[in-house]
Amino acid sequence: MESLFTLVKQSRTDNHSLVKVIDLFSPKIDHSLHQTNQQYREDLAQDLKMKLLVCIRNYDVENIPGYFQMIEFLDTHQTQTY
Amino acid sequence: MKELLFVFYNQGDGKSLMKAEKHLQNPIIKSFLDIPENRELLNEVMNNPTNMSKQRLDDAFREFYFRIRFTSYLSKSIHFNAINYDKKRKLFQDRNQLILDKRSREDEGAALIDLISSKEWQEGQDVCSDSSSIEDHLTSESLFQGIQRLTKNQRHLLSLAYVYGLNDSEIAMYLCKSQQAVSKSHKKALKKLREIIENGEKEGV
Asked: Quick check: B2 pLDDT over 80?
């Protein structure tokens, strides 16, 4: 199993990776379905997957800071970052 | 772990202990260094600070940090989109309510669907407005009975005149008769009709 990082990177061009990422988040989706009535759950699940698709495709993977960038960031900014 | 960082920063300046502590307060850095393999990588950078080892530490951190950031981002997206979906659905339901068969008051009062005007037949409305025969267009009973007693030709003439709205000369052309003949039988038909109705009313009284 590839790491999430590589999967997300690949999902820009590879639909299989995209499906794998969405599947990884399916427990969270299932949990959110309790938000709504029984009869709307299927619709909501579909809607959420569509939203996820956009989120994953558009996520800026390259812009994650490395260790030293993070340290530098912590030194220049007083606030905590999560 | 703190010692490790301390030693690591001590190569630079004197404020390193404070710095190390501050960095460890950051939950990301802390949980990153909680994993022994990552501490190993940091150790290696300390002992052997080449670009290669730094790169490896950087990559490990990037992957680690990405996992957290991405997961939290997607979880939040799912959560808020689920809430939004419900809100939207409720709004739609409020605006397009399915309450036709609800009683306006408990038990008594008609259901809403009974109060809606129907497009079907109502009193005073043409039932067979596209019928070509004049009998189908009458609402007065005496007139209807009068028409029944006219000849077939007279009924046809009256239909042409009053259903289709033709004048006498147009009817004449249509029936291949002279205009005078049509005019005459038209008048005769109306006269007979009037007589029938007046007689019928007298009889009724």
From this structure: no
Cα distance between residue B168 and residue B11, in whole Å:
119
Do B152 and B185 meet the contact criterion of CB atoms below 8 Å apart?
A: no
Query: Looking at beta carbons, which residues of chain B come within 8 Å of A66?
Result: 57-59, 61-62
Q: In chain A, which residues touch B (CB < 8 A)?
A: 3-5, 8, 25, 28-29, 32-33, 35-36, 40, 43-44, 47-48, 51-52, 55-56, 59, 61, 64-71, 74-75, 80-82
Q: For residue A82, which of B6, B1, B73 has the smallest C-alpha distance?
A: B73
**Cβ–Cβ gap B77/A82 under 8 Å:** no
What angle do helix axes B16-25 and A67-76 make, rounded to 10 degrees? 100
In this predicted structure, the answer to whether residue B127 has a pLDDT above a threshold of 60 is: no
Report residue B49 as tokens: 């600070």
Which residues contact residue B154 at a Cβ distance below 8 angstroms, ignoring those fewer than 6 apart? B185, B188, B189, B192
Average pLDDT over residues B125-143: 73
| ipTM confidence | 0.84
